[in-house]
Amino acid sequence: MPQEDRSLPLASPDAELPKLSVVIPMLNEAAGIETALAALQPLRESGVEIIVVDGGSTDESVALATPLADTLLTSAPGRAQQMNLGAERARSAALLFLHADTRLPEGACKLISQSLSTNCWGRFDIHLEGKSRWLPLVSILMNLRSQLSGIATGDQGMFLRRASFEAVGGFPEQPLMEDIELSKRLKALSPPACLRTKVISSGRRWDQFGAWKTICLMWRLRYRYWRGVSATQLAKEYRNAR
């Protein structure tokens, strides 16, 4: 079982270091990245570090994000690689991995700090926002599945102690299910803090490809991953299905 140093404080005694580092992977998010980062500026002003890691955008994402982030990094494409690079450059003892199309609830920083005082990691409940009338049901099912399994997905705003992240080796650099695999490894350290407060995430994937088609696809992929099919193979199937 991985071991961690639970004595590590959530915030450094050095007042110049951030109390939380938010890592945001990005790829061709010009349509929404400016709005997403603008919403984080009050946190940034309060001492939260914002790190954006671009995976090779070909639109205006980088230009739009640069003035609204403390650090903008460039990485090879791949969400796991991007988030690992962001964590490597982060300066806080507490990390939050946030998708570019996910918005935090009010008081998120305080909720994270309180949770990490007793748990080494956690996540928020999620509310999917979009056109499909099925999205409220999808949100309920996602939250229930996560509550029962102790497995979080990236769009739920996963947060954790830096020591815990390092203890399990960070995100596995695989093309799909990196959040599922990280959750499994973190469960060996402690159960997650499952916050009922909701992040709001875009339902664009469900709107674009159809709610039930997307639900069936994701459940099938997760089941096959549980049965041992490689993430590389599943990523190919995911791309073909889309």
From TrEMBL:
Q: Which residues form the Glycosyltransferase 2-like domain?
A: 21-113
Q: What are the GO MF terms of this UniProt record? A: transferase activity
| Cell location | Cell membrane
Q: What is this protein called?
A: Glycosyl transferase
> Which keywords does this Swiss-Prot/TrEMBL entry list?
Cell membrane, Glycosyltransferase, Membrane, Transferase
Major localization listed first in the record, in broad terms: membrane
Under InterPro entries, the record lists: Glyco_trans_2-like (IPR001173), Nucleotide-diphossugar_trans (IPR029044), Trfase_2_rSAM/seldom_assoc (IPR026461)
